[in-house]
Specification:
Blueprint lengths: L21 E6 L1 E2 L2 E2 L5 H12 L3 E9 L3 H17 L5 E2 L2 E4 L21 H10 L4 E6 L8 H8 L3 E5 L5 H9 L4 E4 L1 H12 L4
Parallel strand pairs: 1-4, 4-5, 4-6, 6-7, 7-8, 8-9
Antiparallel strand pairs: 2-3
Helix pairs in contact: 1-2
């Protein structure tokens, strides 16, 4: 039911399902509302649309784009979270890029993919402390795990994805705090296959 019901009453929910709410860790929008180039109102509307299908907590996901556009999207997500107008819980933004592999860009635009740029990510994280929950990156482009260590030390979940990472690259990321390797599984398996085939 969309209405709040008293907890000390009995209700007949025959033919309905009762389950824990879903947590959507990777979604780019809903109901005609994207999470890039968006207003706070669009974020709110997109998140509320997800609730209609059982998502009670959400990480609005931002695609690779010029960094200032990604920053504006984080600002909109922050405003939506702070407004308390969403009916579900915005855990924080999920940045999917721009520090990805151009070879494994998938639906991401290769025009905006770069290696980690320290000044950019440090400024963004410092400005939006507590509003970025997850950041997907290609581990092979993170020299000595510097980016991964910075974001995980800042309380952000580091997730490998859109990547040509080898087992060595993944190991470096794990040593620097990465504990989520699930943004598009096949790219990780591709990197591990290179190791098994003796290509690296």
């Amino acid at each position: 039911s969309k209405d709040n019901k008293p907890s000390d009453s009995f209700y007949d929910f025959t033919s309905f399902y009762v389950s824990p709410g879903f947590i959507d860790m990777h979604t780019h929008g809903a109901g005609g509302n994207g999470f890039l180039d968006c207003s706070a109102e669009q974020v709110i509307n997109g998140c509320n649309h997800h609730l209609l299908h059982g998502t009670t907590s959400i990480l609005p996901t931002i695609s690779a784009a010029p960094f200032n556009r990604m920053k504006d999207a984080v600002q909109s997500i922050k405003e939506a979270k702070d407004s308390h107008k969403t009916k579900n819980n915005i855990i924080g933004a999920h940045l999917e890029g721009p520090y990805l592999s151009a070879e494994q860009c998938g639906a991401q635009s290769p025009d905006y993919i770069t290696k980690p740029i320290k000044q950019d990510y440090v400024e963004l994280v410092n400005e939006f402390k507590g509003y970025i929950a997850r950041w997907t990156f290609a581990a092979e482009n993170d020299e000595n795990g510097v980016f991964c260590k910075f974001i995980t030390d800042s309380g952000i979940i580091a997730s490998i994805g859109h990547s040509n990472a080898t087992l060595k690259d993944v190991d470096m990321a794990i040593k620097n705090g990465c504990n989520l390797i699930v943004t598009h599984h096949p790219v990780i398996f591709g990197g591990i296959k290179k190791v098994l085939d003796g290509d690296v």
